[in-house]
Amino acid sequence: MKRILPYLLAISLLMNGFFAIRLMDGSNNAVKVNSVQVTQADANPSIQVIAKRPYIKKGEVGVLALKCAPDSNCKIICSYRVGGRDFTTTRNIVAGRDGSVLCTWKVDKNTDAGTYQIEILCGQNRLVTNYVVQ
């Protein structure tokens, strides 16, 4: 049961994100809170945050759902701090045929409280967003 809960949470966040985008008629301003879009190719956003869990308690699962170019290689670089020492972790994920990317992680109980950065690289595009450990 403990293994199923993170996936159910991710699915529920994804469904809410997809419905929010459809209701906004193409405007994704409400979804991209605390995100900075940097693209080198064109002005159209190539990486979109569909859903994320911005506030995570120690021991809980973080969720980040993205939309990017189909079948693109994405690198997700996440920073965190344990015992006053800074760490980063990198995860390489290939986007699905529809361009969807789902990344989940568990926040360790020893992680220091604070705001941390997540950097997403997909091809020539870069997106920076944050999450908060409480």
TrEMBL record:
This is Uncharacterized protein.
